Amino acid sequence: MRLYDTAAAAVHPVAPGPLARIYVCGITPYDATHLGHALTYVSFDLVQRTLRDGGVEVSYVQNVTDVDEPLLERAARDGVDWRELAEIETERFRQDMTALRVLPPEAYIGAVEAIPLIIPVVEKLLADDEAYVLDGDIYFTVERAAHFGSVAHLPREQMLALSAERGGDPDRPGKRDPLDPLLWRAERPGEPAWDAPFGRGRPGWHVECSAIALEHLGAEIDIQGGGSDLAYPHHECSAAHAAAVSGRWPFADAYVHSGMLAFKGAKMSKSLGNLVFVSVLRRDGVDPMAIRLALLSHHYRSDWEWTGEMLDEAIARLDRWRAAAAAEGGPNGENLLARLRACLAADLDAPAALAALDGWCDGVLAGDHADAQAPALVRTAVDALLGIELN
Protein backbone atom coordinates (compact mmCIF):
# COMPACT_ATOMS: atom_id res chain seq x y z
CA MET A 1 0.00 0.00 0.00
CA ARG A 2 1.23 3.50 -0.89
CA LEU A 3 0.08 6.71 0.81
CA TYR A 4 0.98 10.38 0.59
CA ASP A 5 3.34 11.43 3.38
CA THR A 6 3.05 15.11 4.27
CA ALA A 7 6.57 15.19 5.71
CA ALA A 8 8.12 13.76 2.54
CA ALA A 9 5.66 15.52 0.20
CA ALA A 10 5.49 12.27 -1.75
CA VAL A 11 3.60 9.02 -2.07
CA HIS A 12 5.54 6.04 -0.76
CA PRO A 13 4.96 2.53 0.62
CA VAL A 14 3.69 2.24 4.19
CA ALA A 15 3.79 -0.57 6.74
CA PRO A 16 6.38 -2.78 5.01
CA GLY A 17 6.38 -5.27 7.90
CA PRO A 18 3.75 -7.70 9.22
CA LEU A 19 2.40 -5.14 11.72
CA ALA A 20 1.14 -1.63 10.97
CA ARG A 21 1.09 0.75 13.94
CA ILE A 22 -1.38 3.57 13.31
CA TYR A 23 -2.25 6.51 15.53
CA VAL A 24 -5.15 8.74 14.47
CA CYS A 25 -6.02 11.83 16.50
CA GLY A 26 -9.53 11.81 17.89
CA ILE A 27 -12.20 14.35 18.73
CA THR A 28 -12.66 16.92 21.46
CA PRO A 29 -16.15 15.86 22.56
CA TYR A 30 -17.95 19.14 23.07
CA ASP A 31 -20.43 18.70 20.21
CA ALA A 32 -21.86 15.97 18.01
CA THR A 33 -19.99 14.24 15.21
CA HIS A 34 -20.11 16.27 12.01
CA LEU A 35 -19.31 15.10 8.49
CA GLY A 36 -15.82 16.60 8.65
CA HIS A 37 -15.06 14.19 11.50
CA ALA A 38 -16.66 11.35 9.59
CA LEU A 39 -14.55 12.07 6.50
CA THR A 40 -11.34 11.68 8.51
CA TYR A 41 -12.31 8.47 10.29
CA VAL A 42 -13.84 6.83 7.23
CA SER A 43 -10.61 7.62 5.35
CA PHE A 44 -8.44 5.92 7.95
CA ASP A 45 -10.92 3.08 8.15
CA LEU A 46 -10.13 2.45 4.48
CA VAL A 47 -6.43 2.42 5.37
CA GLN A 48 -7.12 -0.21 8.04
CA ARG A 49 -9.24 -2.32 5.73
CA THR A 50 -6.74 -2.21 2.86
CA LEU A 51 -3.83 -3.19 5.07
CA ARG A 52 -5.77 -6.00 6.72
CA ASP A 53 -6.89 -7.31 3.32
CA GLY A 54 -3.21 -7.41 2.34
CA GLY A 55 -2.40 -9.67 5.29
CA VAL A 56 -0.98 -6.96 7.54
CA GLU A 57 -1.89 -6.97 11.22
CA VAL A 58 -3.02 -3.51 12.35
CA SER A 59 -2.57 -1.95 15.77
CA TYR A 60 -4.76 1.16 15.64
CA VAL A 61 -4.90 3.66 18.49
CA GLN A 62 -7.08 6.74 18.83
CA ASN A 63 -7.45 9.32 21.58
CA VAL A 64 -10.30 11.52 22.72
CA THR A 65 -9.40 14.90 24.18
CA ASP A 66 -11.91 14.77 27.01
CA VAL A 67 -10.49 17.76 28.89
CA ASP A 68 -9.60 20.96 27.02
CA GLU A 69 -10.65 24.59 26.73
CA PRO A 70 -13.42 24.13 24.12
CA LEU A 71 -15.03 21.39 26.20
CA LEU A 72 -14.83 23.42 29.42
CA GLU A 73 -16.19 26.53 27.70
CA ARG A 74 -19.15 24.64 26.19
CA ALA A 75 -19.95 22.98 29.52
CA ALA A 76 -19.88 26.34 31.32
CA ARG A 77 -22.06 27.91 28.63
CA ASP A 78 -24.66 25.15 28.90
CA GLY A 79 -24.48 24.82 32.67
CA VAL A 80 -23.48 21.14 32.64
CA ASP A 81 -20.62 19.23 34.17
CA TRP A 82 -17.73 18.96 31.69
CA ARG A 83 -17.31 15.25 32.45
CA GLU A 84 -20.97 14.57 31.67
CA LEU A 85 -20.74 16.52 28.41
CA ALA A 86 -17.61 14.62 27.37
CA GLU A 87 -19.22 11.28 28.16
CA ILE A 88 -22.41 12.06 26.23
CA GLU A 89 -20.65 13.33 23.12
CA THR A 90 -18.02 10.59 23.13
CA GLU A 91 -20.77 7.97 23.22
CA ARG A 92 -22.63 9.76 20.41
CA PHE A 93 -19.41 9.76 18.36
CA ARG A 94 -18.91 6.04 18.93
CA GLN A 95 -22.49 5.31 17.90
CA ASP A 96 -22.03 7.37 14.73
CA MET A 97 -18.80 5.53 13.89
CA THR A 98 -20.48 2.18 14.46
CA ALA A 99 -23.35 3.17 12.17
CA LEU A 100 -20.82 4.18 9.49
CA ARG A 101 -19.12 0.79 10.00
CA VAL A 102 -15.79 2.30 10.99
CA LEU A 103 -13.67 -0.45 12.55
CA PRO A 104 -13.03 0.44 16.20
CA PRO A 105 -9.54 1.23 17.49
CA GLU A 106 -7.61 -1.42 19.35
CA ALA A 107 -7.12 1.18 22.07
CA TYR A 108 -9.37 4.21 22.55
CA ILE A 109 -7.83 6.41 25.23
CA GLY A 110 -9.13 9.59 26.83
CA ALA A 111 -6.85 12.42 27.90
CA VAL A 112 -8.03 12.11 31.50
CA GLU A 113 -7.32 8.38 31.46
CA ALA A 114 -3.86 9.11 30.00
CA ILE A 115 -2.73 11.58 32.67
CA PRO A 116 -0.67 8.86 34.48
CA LEU A 117 1.15 8.38 31.15
CA ILE A 118 1.57 12.09 30.47
CA ILE A 119 3.11 13.05 33.84
CA PRO A 120 6.28 10.92 33.37
CA VAL A 121 6.72 12.35 29.86
CA VAL A 122 6.62 15.90 31.19
CA GLU A 123 8.96 14.92 34.05
CA LYS A 124 11.51 13.54 31.60
CA LEU A 125 11.32 16.58 29.35
CA LEU A 126 11.96 18.82 32.35
CA ALA A 127 14.82 16.66 33.61
CA ASP A 128 16.46 16.67 30.15
CA ASP A 129 16.13 20.46 29.82
CA GLU A 130 13.71 20.00 26.93
CA ALA A 131 11.08 21.99 28.85
CA TYR A 132 10.85 24.93 31.27
CA VAL A 133 8.46 26.46 33.78
CA LEU A 134 6.75 29.79 33.24
CA ASP A 135 4.52 31.02 36.06
CA GLY A 136 3.69 27.43 36.95
CA ASP A 137 2.93 26.39 33.37
CA ILE A 138 5.36 24.09 31.58
CA TYR A 139 6.44 24.63 27.98
CA PHE A 140 8.39 22.51 25.52
CA THR A 141 11.51 24.14 24.07
CA VAL A 142 11.31 23.91 20.29
CA GLU A 143 14.86 25.22 19.95
CA ARG A 144 16.07 21.93 21.41
CA ALA A 145 14.10 19.86 18.88
CA ALA A 146 16.44 19.26 15.95
CA HIS A 147 13.70 18.15 13.59
CA PHE A 148 11.04 20.71 14.52
CA GLY A 149 9.36 21.92 11.35
CA SER A 150 10.08 18.82 9.30
CA VAL A 151 6.53 17.45 9.42
CA ALA A 152 4.54 20.33 7.95
CA HIS A 153 7.46 22.25 6.37
CA LEU A 154 5.92 25.67 7.02
CA PRO A 155 7.70 29.03 7.19
CA ARG A 156 8.02 30.49 10.67
CA GLU A 157 5.51 33.29 10.07
CA GLN A 158 2.87 30.79 9.03
CA MET A 159 3.60 28.64 12.05
CA LEU A 160 3.14 31.66 14.29
CA ALA A 161 -0.19 32.48 12.69
CA LEU A 162 -1.46 28.89 12.88
CA SER A 163 -0.30 28.54 16.46
CA ALA A 164 -2.47 31.50 17.43
CA GLU A 165 -5.45 30.12 15.49
CA ARG A 166 -5.17 26.54 16.75
CA GLY A 167 -4.89 26.72 20.50
CA GLY A 168 -1.38 28.10 21.00
CA ASP A 169 -0.28 31.28 22.75
CA PRO A 170 2.61 32.73 20.71
CA ASP A 171 2.11 36.21 22.16
CA ARG A 172 2.56 35.18 25.80
CA PRO A 173 5.39 37.17 27.42
CA GLY A 174 8.24 35.19 28.95
CA LYS A 175 8.27 32.26 26.55
CA ARG A 176 11.69 31.34 25.20
CA ASP A 177 10.25 31.04 21.73
CA PRO A 178 6.72 32.10 20.71
CA LEU A 179 6.27 28.67 19.10
CA ASP A 180 6.97 26.75 22.32
CA PRO A 181 3.87 24.59 22.98
CA LEU A 182 2.25 24.07 26.35
CA LEU A 183 2.94 20.75 28.07
CA TRP A 184 1.17 21.31 31.39
CA ARG A 185 -1.28 24.04 32.39
CA ALA A 186 -1.06 24.94 36.07
CA GLU A 187 -4.30 24.84 38.01
CA ARG A 188 -6.62 27.83 37.56
CA PRO A 189 -9.61 28.60 39.78
CA GLY A 190 -12.66 26.63 38.71
CA GLU A 191 -10.76 24.41 36.26
CA PRO A 192 -10.14 20.67 36.63
CA ALA A 193 -6.64 19.74 37.79
CA TRP A 194 -4.63 16.67 38.77
CA ASP A 195 -1.71 16.20 41.11
CA ALA A 196 1.76 16.00 39.60
CA PRO A 197 5.31 16.30 41.00
CA PHE A 198 5.66 19.64 39.21
CA GLY A 199 2.36 21.04 40.47
CA ARG A 200 -1.37 20.50 40.07
CA GLY A 201 -2.76 21.13 36.61
CA ARG A 202 -3.77 19.42 33.39
CA PRO A 203 -1.98 18.39 30.21
CA GLY A 204 -1.51 20.31 27.01
CA TRP A 205 -3.04 19.00 23.82
CA HIS A 206 0.03 17.79 21.91
CA VAL A 207 1.73 15.84 24.71
CA GLU A 208 -1.49 13.89 25.24
CA CYS A 209 -1.08 12.16 21.88
CA SER A 210 2.68 11.72 22.33
CA ALA A 211 2.25 9.90 25.63
CA ILE A 212 -0.60 7.69 24.41
CA ALA A 213 1.23 6.71 21.23
CA LEU A 214 4.50 5.98 23.03
CA GLU A 215 2.72 3.77 25.54
CA HIS A 216 0.52 1.83 23.15
CA LEU A 217 2.52 1.78 19.90
CA GLY A 218 6.15 2.48 20.77
CA ALA A 219 8.76 5.06 19.82
CA GLU A 220 8.41 4.58 16.06
CA ILE A 221 5.07 4.12 14.35
CA ASP A 222 4.03 3.60 10.75
CA ILE A 223 1.27 6.18 10.31
CA GLN A 224 0.30 9.31 12.23
CA GLY A 225 -3.07 10.39 10.87
CA GLY A 226 -5.75 13.03 11.07
CA GLY A 227 -7.22 15.95 9.19
CA SER A 228 -4.85 18.24 7.28
CA ASP A 229 -5.42 20.99 9.85
CA LEU A 230 -3.49 18.85 12.37
CA ALA A 231 -0.21 18.85 10.44
CA TYR A 232 0.71 22.03 12.29
CA PRO A 233 0.86 22.53 15.18
CA HIS A 234 -0.48 19.25 16.50
CA HIS A 235 1.47 16.61 14.61
CA GLU A 236 4.57 18.79 14.46
CA CYS A 237 4.59 19.21 18.24
CA SER A 238 3.51 15.72 19.25
CA ALA A 239 6.26 14.24 17.05
CA ALA A 240 8.82 16.55 18.62
CA HIS A 241 7.70 15.57 22.14
CA ALA A 242 7.88 11.86 21.35
CA ALA A 243 11.32 12.15 19.76
CA ALA A 244 12.65 14.13 22.72
CA VAL A 245 11.51 11.37 25.08
CA SER A 246 12.61 8.38 23.00
CA GLY A 247 15.67 9.82 21.28
CA ARG A 248 14.48 8.32 17.98
CA TRP A 249 13.42 9.98 14.73
CA PRO A 250 11.22 9.93 12.77
CA PHE A 251 8.37 9.33 15.14
CA ALA A 252 6.12 8.28 12.25
CA ASP A 253 7.21 6.77 8.97
CA ALA A 254 4.34 8.61 7.28
CA TYR A 255 2.18 11.57 8.25
CA VAL A 256 -1.09 11.02 6.42
CA HIS A 257 -3.75 13.72 6.32
CA SER A 258 -7.31 13.77 5.03
CA GLY A 259 -8.73 16.86 3.35
CA MET A 260 -11.08 19.46 4.74
CA LEU A 261 -14.81 19.34 4.16
CA ALA A 262 -16.60 22.64 3.54
CA PHE A 263 -20.25 23.60 3.82
CA LYS A 264 -21.85 26.85 2.74
CA GLY A 265 -18.58 28.25 1.47
CA ALA A 266 -16.34 27.60 4.49
CA LYS A 267 -14.53 24.74 6.18
CA MET A 268 -16.99 22.73 8.25
CA SER A 269 -16.10 23.52 11.87
CA LYS A 270 -17.66 23.87 15.27
CA SER A 271 -16.33 27.40 15.66
CA LEU A 272 -18.17 28.55 12.52
CA GLY A 273 -21.27 26.49 13.23
CA ASN A 274 -21.67 25.36 9.61
CA LEU A 275 -22.08 21.73 10.50
CA VAL A 276 -23.94 18.72 9.14
CA PHE A 277 -24.24 16.14 11.91
CA VAL A 278 -24.10 12.42 11.28
CA SER A 279 -26.54 11.78 14.13
CA VAL A 280 -29.08 14.21 12.65
CA LEU A 281 -28.89 12.56 9.22
CA ARG A 282 -29.35 9.18 10.87
CA ARG A 283 -32.29 10.47 12.91
CA ASP A 284 -33.87 11.72 9.68
CA GLY A 285 -33.74 8.21 8.27
CA VAL A 286 -30.71 8.49 5.98
CA ASP A 287 -29.02 5.13 5.43
CA PRO A 288 -25.52 5.39 7.02
CA MET A 289 -24.17 3.46 4.03
CA ALA A 290 -25.27 6.33 1.79
CA ILE A 291 -23.45 8.80 4.05
CA ARG A 292 -20.31 6.68 3.88
CA LEU A 293 -20.61 6.33 0.12
CA ALA A 294 -20.95 10.09 -0.31
CA LEU A 295 -17.76 10.61 1.70
CA LEU A 296 -15.90 8.01 -0.37
CA SER A 297 -16.85 9.69 -3.63
CA HIS A 298 -13.97 12.17 -3.21
CA HIS A 299 -10.29 11.39 -2.80
CA TYR A 300 -9.32 11.40 0.86
CA ARG A 301 -6.70 14.14 0.40
CA SER A 302 -8.93 16.55 -1.48
CA ASP A 303 -10.80 19.53 -0.02
CA TRP A 304 -14.42 19.68 -1.16
CA GLU A 305 -17.81 21.09 -0.29
CA TRP A 306 -20.79 19.10 0.93
CA THR A 307 -24.16 19.56 -0.76
CA GLY A 308 -27.51 17.86 -0.37
CA GLU A 309 -27.29 16.76 -4.00
CA MET A 310 -24.24 14.65 -3.15
CA LEU A 311 -26.25 12.70 -0.62
CA ASP A 312 -29.07 12.21 -3.14
CA GLU A 313 -26.53 10.88 -5.66
CA ALA A 314 -25.06 8.53 -3.06
CA ILE A 315 -28.50 7.16 -2.19
CA ALA A 316 -29.25 6.48 -5.85
CA ARG A 317 -25.81 4.89 -6.35
CA LEU A 318 -26.28 2.65 -3.31
CA ASP A 319 -29.69 1.49 -4.57
CA ARG A 320 -28.15 0.67 -7.94
CA TRP A 321 -25.28 -1.29 -6.39
CA ARG A 322 -27.67 -3.26 -4.22
CA ALA A 323 -29.86 -4.11 -7.18
CA ALA A 324 -26.85 -5.37 -9.15
CA ALA A 325 -25.44 -7.31 -6.19
CA ALA A 326 -28.78 -9.12 -5.81
CA ALA A 327 -28.71 -10.43 -9.40
CA GLU A 328 -28.22 -14.09 -10.28
CA GLY A 329 -24.87 -13.42 -11.93
CA GLY A 330 -22.58 -10.72 -13.27
CA PRO A 331 -19.29 -9.91 -14.98
CA ASN A 332 -16.18 -11.60 -13.61
CA GLY A 333 -16.01 -10.92 -9.88
CA GLU A 334 -12.31 -11.72 -9.44
CA ASN A 335 -11.40 -9.04 -11.97
CA LEU A 336 -13.41 -6.47 -10.05
CA LEU A 337 -11.85 -7.53 -6.75
CA ALA A 338 -8.36 -7.08 -8.19
CA ARG A 339 -9.30 -3.65 -9.47
CA LEU A 340 -10.70 -2.56 -6.11
CA ARG A 341 -7.54 -3.68 -4.34
CA ALA A 342 -5.32 -1.89 -6.82
CA CYS A 343 -7.25 1.36 -6.50
CA LEU A 344 -7.13 1.41 -2.72
CA ALA A 345 -3.47 0.45 -2.59
CA ALA A 346 -2.65 3.41 -4.86
CA ASP A 347 -2.91 6.21 -2.28
CA LEU A 348 -6.42 5.19 -1.30
CA ASP A 349 -8.10 6.07 -4.60
CA ALA A 350 -11.65 5.42 -3.44
CA PRO A 351 -13.30 7.35 -6.33
CA ALA A 352 -11.59 5.04 -8.82
CA ALA A 353 -12.74 2.03 -6.80
CA LEU A 354 -16.32 3.32 -6.86
CA ALA A 355 -16.08 3.86 -10.62
CA ALA A 356 -14.87 0.29 -11.08
CA LEU A 357 -17.88 -0.97 -9.15
CA ASP A 358 -20.16 1.27 -11.21
CA GLY A 359 -18.76 -0.39 -14.32
CA TRP A 360 -19.42 -3.85 -12.94
CA CYS A 361 -23.00 -2.84 -12.13
CA ASP A 362 -23.41 -1.53 -15.68
CA GLY A 363 -22.56 -5.00 -16.94
CA VAL A 364 -25.02 -6.70 -14.60
CA LEU A 365 -27.87 -4.36 -15.46
CA ALA A 366 -27.07 -4.75 -19.17
CA GLY A 367 -27.62 -8.50 -18.84
CA ASP A 368 -24.09 -9.89 -18.34
CA HIS A 369 -24.63 -12.72 -15.84
CA ALA A 370 -21.73 -14.91 -17.01
CA ASP A 371 -20.20 -15.38 -13.55
CA ALA A 372 -22.81 -16.89 -11.25
CA GLN A 373 -20.57 -16.43 -8.19
CA ALA A 374 -19.80 -12.79 -8.88
CA PRO A 375 -22.61 -11.09 -6.89
CA ALA A 376 -21.71 -12.94 -3.67
CA LEU A 377 -18.02 -12.15 -4.13
CA VAL A 378 -18.78 -8.52 -4.86
CA ARG A 379 -20.97 -8.18 -1.78
CA THR A 380 -18.18 -9.60 0.37
CA ALA A 381 -15.49 -7.46 -1.27
CA VAL A 382 -17.44 -4.21 -1.00
CA ASP A 383 -18.22 -4.99 2.62
CA ALA A 384 -14.61 -5.84 3.53
CA LEU A 385 -12.76 -3.21 1.49
CA LEU A 386 -15.15 -0.27 1.28
CA GLY A 387 -17.12 -0.92 4.47
CA ILE A 388 -20.44 -0.75 2.63
CA GLU A 389 -23.11 -3.36 3.22
CA LEU A 390 -24.98 -4.35 0.06
CA ASN A 391 -27.28 -7.01 1.50
Care to describe what's here?
44% of the residues lie in helices and 16% in strands. It has helices at 35-53, 69-78, 82-99, 115-127, 156-165, 205-216, 231-246, 278-283, 288-296, 308-325, 333-345, 350-365, 374-386; strands at residues 2-5, 10-13, 19-24, 57-64, 107-110, 131-134, 137-140, 182-186, 201-203, 221-227, 252-258, 261-263, 266-267, 304-305. The strands form 4 sheets. A 5-stranded parallel β-sheet has the order 5-4-3-10-11, sandwiched between helices. The chain starts with a strand and ends in a 5-residue tail after the last helix.
From the structure above, extract its key features:
single chain, 391 residues, alpha/beta, five-stranded parallel β-sheet, four-stranded antiparallel β-sheet, 14 strands, 16% strand, globular
Low-confidence stretches: none
Order of helices and strands: EEEHEHHEHEEHEEHEHEEEHHEHHHH
Q: What global shape is seen? A: globular
Largest sheet: 5 strands, parallel
How far apart the termini lie comes to 28 Å
Strand order of the largest sheet: 5-4-3-10-11
Radius of gyration: 22 Å
Report the strand count: 14
Class from secondary-structure proportions: alpha/beta
Helix content: 40-55%
Average pLDDT score = 96
